[in-house]
Amino acid sequence: MSSTTTPRVSSTTNPRVMSAARTAPLPKGQDAAISERLKSESANVALNAVAVLKEMVGDFRQQDRFFKYKASIVGGWLLVSLATVGLTCARGVKETGDFGAKLIPITSRAAVTIMNKSDETWRDVIVVVKDNRGAEWRASVARVEPTKELTVTPKQLLGADGRAAPSDIRIRDVEMRTSEGRAQLLENGRNLTEEAP
Fold first, then answer.
1. pTM
2. What strand order describes the sheet that includes 181-187?
3. Is the dihedral of CA 59, 64, 66, 72 positive or negative?
4. Helix or strand run (H / E) with residue 97
5. Residue 37: is its pLDDT beyond 70?
6. pLDDT for residue 197
7. What is the chain's alpha carbon radius of gyration, rounded to the nearest angstrom?
């Protein structure tokens, strides 16, 4: 017979579950003691973290140079990856004024003309137009050079089903999307690119 003991198993089929919630709030005198305990425990955690970091640095210094090379390669890769993710997320959504876009109203026909007033080329430009019935139409162009205009006619606007927009489209909203972000240019018929007087 072996000298090991077997673990005890509960004989009940439905063990009772106990809640750790307090039935009544703590007395006011114990609040100060709790805050002191929290301060001391947080100080202990900070000191333990510093001690662990010192041990890791000491262990790293005792490793051979090939391990250090490997660690520096992995560390450099992590740094480049984090920088790439950070820069990608930092792009975000540009405001209408950040693009240097100017929506030029053309009242004689149902067309959208956008002027690039910035010093940068817009790439992968998509113009999204909503009409007065809420239908969405899109047109795209590869690039718009600085100081150049982009004019989109109803024939160039395509719906979700691939059909062109009607020639008498009433444009309500215009949004421009590029590889750098997006900007609302016209909202409910109001030109957002006009400077305030």
1. 0.51
2. 136-144, 122-131, 171-178, 181-187, 190-191
3. positive
4. helix 96-99
5. yes
6. 45
7. 32
